[in-house]
Protein: Zinc-binding dehydrogenase
Organism: Nocardia speluncae
Amino acid sequence: MRALVIDRSAASGLRLGEVADPEPATNQALIRVTATSLNSGEIVHGLSEAADGTVPGWDATGIVERAAADGSGPTEGTPVVTLGPSGAWAELRAVDTGLIGTVPANADHGAISTVPVAGTTALRSLHRLGPILGRRVLITGATGGTGRYAVQLARHGGAHVVAATADPATHARSLRDLGAAEVVTTPTDLAEPVDGVIDLVGGQQLVDAYQHLAEGGTVVAVGHAAGAAETFPYGALFGDQGRHDRSITTFFLLGCAGLSRDFTWLAGQVSTGALDPNITWRGSWTEADTAVHTLLARRLHGKAVLEMC
């Protein structure tokens, strides 16, 4: 089969070549891939850390070519959306059936391919805040793929959404269109405390966000785009004077149970237009070099999609 493989001699670190077809385990389905979306983590870290010849890629949509031998998961011919630690950037991928969601007939597979990492990370992050109806929720790094999903989902959940972006002049209108009630540059610009934070930046922004939590609030530390340490000053973790019961939590998406249900629900929401996948670059997988360079240059505010055509 054809696949994008790690190749250190190539300018982008990738080349389109021939590799052996994957051999599914008994609890895995074989998927004929139609589209994949790129995530900053797999580009910034995955391409540099993987061995030559590896087929990378986390997100993919496609059609079940062969159902799992153990009888689990969708049947042959079912359109699906999938997640895995690698293997998405190929014509075929073998996927655990617990990491497969179903896709509505005639849905845009490119749009649905943005769901597994970006959409589901946003959804699971908001779950960790608990009920958000009528509460103030801050989302840092709001212009990225996960951030834009988080803004929409938080608004759907009834939150007063505050979106943080380094360039409000450029992005405020689009973020408000997605559901943000306020747009700020950093957590230090907050006029009043927030009940929850989805932090996709890390570094000083995470520290500042925690300092602006209301009593009982939670920061979900999801992203670390800043590439900087989180250093809390003395007294930041005191629990007095309205700072009682604040917390910071983390999670690993592949460690979560029940992801198939989330994939299926999110795919339905994207398919009906209730959620905007915010695709800002789209092309053939033969143009992967362009997509990778655009993402690394931080010129993408949203999602990049490669179609296997």
